[in-house]
Specification:
745 residues; single chain; elongated; 9-stranded mixed sheet; alpha/beta
Length: 745
């Protein structure tokens, strides 16, 4: 028995801890019920309470069972305390006062002083507990008898009785046959017993011997009706109704009159009581746990009333913060896409091969014509400035949106103007105003060469660059000189663009790394008020869930499910930056094939604003293994996000966006595709619905969902290692994309 009581200790702890969170008044009914039920679960003894209104003979019945006048009895309401009768080697009494004083006396005479009502028929307020130890064999089996004050007399007595009934294993409700089941008794039966899970109840009718024979039969019939209407949970085969004439039974027992005890009904009742108790003792959980369920339900209901408002407020805050982060993340992605495009454009522009291809002829001719500085400012610097400005526009947009870090200006300087050294002019050294090998600084050699010579050099430049002639043989000395000068000019410009490319790419790589800080953003710290509410909520949820867990462990059913505990608030922080990347020709070549799946999913809407191109369904390069559906699903979600960002950008640029946003959001999801204008369009739309497996006229959201499901099913990535199926999937995807484009336009 002791071991079973210890097994409920965790449940008791859970009940107490959860009730403390409710901040209950100490004298509140629920607080008292929790204390009572906790003591009840840890009490190893089996307790039987005799319960009923005053002057029903409760103490007399208990004395008859014990075989002596152990408890005080009188013709007026007597019992003024809950008296627990336990086993002891000799008859003695222990009274504990509320100030901690212990009174220990032999016999039970001390009960007259502390356990009966005073002259004003009030209970003794200074008495904490009353225990009587009696050498009765029935009690030696771990049985306790509880004599309770009579009900329907004083409110304090009713409150005491109600509390103590919760902690008893078996209730003997004593009825007065002369006034059977009064209104008060019926109310107590419902409110004090049934509603609190107390169903191990035996009815005992007293005073039947005082009725006339014909009245006894009528009362017996009414008693049977009462007993049958109350579904007592007693062991099978035992009745929940007995007749005991308490006073004759006590007199017979005191005289040792066995026949009198039998005729009074006491012997029958005692035999049934001992057998019922013996069975119930072996199944204490079946008796006690329904009462725990009733109290636990009240605690859970009260806890839920505290949890739900906090949960709603905290969830609302989290949803708003998540919505802000989502918008910022979409903006960050959109800005980063623009930045990446601008960086790529400038990086490609700075590639040496591209610079030479686009500008070398012009630059070399400008040197020969003494116009390099003008050309450099009017063409090269203008183009470079425009490309740098495109990057800075995105960065300032990021700063305006996130207000995190002000961007630095991107400034790639142009190299110094080219300097060249001319070879000696054949046969005309004296015509030069400077000695052979003189340096022409700042470009412009036309004035040195003069007239036809300069024109010939310019012609040679174009000829050499276009024809890619590196050497000339069998030419006249004059033509050879033109080409020598032209080659010098070409070499100078190549060095110029090489310096611009190397220096520009290095500056751009470093700037690109720094620019990432501008597009990063952090979440807002949690307000102290919300933080405190989150802490309270987490404590309540943990306690609630622990109670549910302990109830389940004790096999007590509950109507409540554990809460999914609200997570701790962690402000959004940008991901950790990787090491700074430098860009080389090799890396550029590697990066050119890095966007395999994004290309095959992206629609023209996400690649180019206001474009009407269709989804590109080119299959990705073959891999050694096929991606699983989860990978395809993840890539599809990325595509959805990209598409939504593009839509967000378009919407934010449209007139009246803020004013119409709410209306658009509420109507968009249910909006159906536009009606066709002619029969050809009708047929095309009907076929599109059929391909997507939809009924005509469904909403845009349903079209998108169907498209999404089909893409996940037929994407060619899923059939990389199955060429025949992949070919079929590609054709299927072509039809699906066409249908989606038709219905979403």
């Amino acid at each position: 028995m002791q071991k079973q009581s210890e097994s409920y200790q965790d449940l008791v702890n859970a009940l107490k801890s959860t009730s403390r969170l409710l901040n209950l008044e100490r004298n509140s009914q629920l607080s008292q019920d929790v204390n009572t039920i906790s003591h009840y679960l840890t009490n190893p003894n089996f307790q039987i309470a005799v319960f009923g209104p005053f002057n029903h003979g409760k103490s007399t019945l208990l004395n008859a069972i014990l075989g002596n006048r152990t408890l005080p009895i009188d013709l007026i309401p007597t019992t003024g305390a809950a008296i627990i009768v336990k086993y002891g080697s000799d008859l003695r009494t222990r009274i504990m006062l509320r100030d901690g004083t212990e009174i220990y006396r032999s016999g039970t005479e001390i009960l007259q002083q502390y356990a009966i009502l005073d002259g004003n028929r009030q209970m003794h307020q200074d008495v904490a507990s009353v225990e009587v130890f009696c050498p009765h064999p029935f009690l030696k089996r771990g049985i306790e008898l509880l004599d309770l004050p009579g009900t329907n007399d004083k409110e304090a007595q009713d409150s005491l009785v109600r509390d103590r009934l919760l902690s008893t294993d078996l209730v003997v409700q004593l009825l007065d046959a002369r006034k059977l089941m009064t209104l008060g008794e019926r109310e107590n039966l419902r409110d004090w017993l049934l509603d609190r899970g107390i169903k191990t109840v035996i009815f005992v009718a007293n005073f039947i011997n005082l009725l006339e024979p014909e009245e006894q039969q009528q009362v017996q019939n009414r008693l049977l009706f009462v007993a049958e209407s109350f579904r007592a949970e007693l062991p099978p085969g035992f009745s929940n109704l007995y007749r005991v004439d308490a006073l004759p039974a006590l007199r017979a027992r005191l005289k040792g009159d066995g026949a009198g005890a039998t005729s009074s009904g006491l012997a029958t009742f005692e035999a049934a009581l001992q057998n019922i108790v013996s069975i119930l003792q072996q199944n204490r959980g079946d008796v006690r746990l329904p009462r725990v369920q009733a109290i636990a339900s009240q605690i859970q209901l009260n806890l839920q009333a505290k949890i739900e408002p906090l949960l709603k407020e905290v969830k609302s805050f989290d949803e708003k913060e998540n919505a802000k982060i989502e918008v910022k993340q979409k903006a960050a992605n959109l800005i980063q896409q623009g930045l990446n495009k601008s960086f790529t454009e400038l990086r490609n522009w700075l590639e040496l091969s591209n610079l030479l291809k686009k500008y070398q002829t012009e630059a070399t001719v400008a040197i020969a014509e003494d116009k390099f500085k003008t050309w450099q400012i009017g063409t090269l610097k203008k183009d470079l400035s425009e490309l740098q400005l495109n990057i800075m526009k995105w960065l300032y947009q990021a700063y305006e949106f996130f207000k995190e870090e002000r961007p630095e200006d991107l400034s790639i300087p142009l190299p110094n103007e080219p300097q060249i050294t001319l070879p000696p002019k054949p046969g005309s050294n004296n015509d030069l105003t400077e000695p052979a090998g003189a340096i022409a600084v700042g470009g412009g050699i036309g004035w040195l060469l003069g007239g036809p010579v300069g024109a010939a050099v310019v012609g040679s430049i174009s000829y050499l660059l276009n024809k890619n002639i590196q050497e000339t043989d069998d030419k006249s000395a004059q033509e050879s000189y033109h080409q020598q000068v032209a080659k010098i000019c070409i070499g100078v410009t190549e060095n110029y663009f090489t310096e611009l490319s190397n220096q520009g790419l290095a500056i751009l790589a470093e700037f690109e790394y720094k620019a990432k800080r501008v597009t990063r953003f952090s979440g807002s710290p949690e307000p102290l008020e919300i933080a405190n509410k989150r802490k309270d909520l987490q404590q309540l949820q943990i306690s609630f869930n622990q109670l549910v867990q302990q109830l389940s462990k004790a096999k007590i059913s509950t109507n409540y499910q554990p809460y999914r505990e609200i997570p701790k608030y962690i402000p959004y922080t940008p991901p950790v930056e990787k090491e700074q990347k430098t860009y080389s020709q090799k890396e550029k070549a590697n990066n050119s094939t890095s966007s395999t799946y994004r290309y095959s999913y992206k629609t023209a809407e996400t690649n180019q604003a206001n474009s009407n191109q269709r989804v590109n369904t080119s299959p990705p390069p073959k891999a050694s293994t096929s991606p699983n559906p989860a990978e395809v699903d993840a890539k599809f979600r990325n595509w959805e996000i990209d598409q939504e960002i593009a839509r967000m950008k378009a919407e934010m640029r449209s007139p009246g966006y803020q004013a119409n946003k709410q209306q658009q959001n509420t109507s968009q999801s249910n909006k159906a595709p536009q009606q066709p204008k002619n029969q050809a369009e009708k047929d095309k739309i009907t076929r599109a619905y059929s391909i997507l497996g939809l009924q005509p006229g469904v909403s845009i959201n349903e079209v998108k969902q169907a498209y999404k499901n089909l893409v996940k099913k037929w994407h060619p990535d899923l059939y990389v290692n199955q060429p025949q199926l992949q070919k079929q999937a590609q054709e299927k995807m072509r039809l699906i994309n066409e249908a989606y484009t038709i219905l979403s336009d």
